[in-house]
Amino acid sequence: MAAGDAGGRLVSADLADVLLARFEHLPDDARQVVRAAAVAGRRVSHRLLAATAEARRRAARRRGPRRRRRERAGAARG
Predict the structure, then answer these.
(1) Average per-residue pLDDT for the chain
(2) Residue 22: which residues within 8 A CB-CB, separation 6 or more?
(3) Residue 57 contacts residue 29 (beta carbons within 8 Å)
C-alpha cells in the first residue's frame, strides 16, 4: 500500500505514519526546515535551509515574547 510518491518511488503507509509522528514532535524551527526541504525538492542547499530557519527566527522575534509563549502553550495542548 502506498501513502505517497517520492520521485516515482512509493512510500509505505507504515513508513509515512512513522515519519509524520516524528515530524510532529520536532520543534517549530525544525519543522519549518523540513517543510522547506520537502518543497525544494530532492537536492537542497544548506544555505537555503539556513536562510529558512533564520527567517523563522526573525519572524518569531517580531511577534514578541508574549505571543510566542501563547503559541507554545497552544501547541503543547495539541
Answers:
(1) 79
(2) none
(3) yes
For residue 24, count other CB atoms closer than 10 A to its CB.
10
The more confidently predicted of residues 60 and 69 is 60
d(CA 59, CA 78): 22
Report pTM: 0.53
Per-residue DSSP letter, 29: H
Domain ranges (residues) in the chain: 2-77
* Residue 2 pLDDT greater than 90, yes or no: no
Whole-Å CA distances, 25 to 8, 16, 22, 43, 44? 28, 15, 5, 24, 23
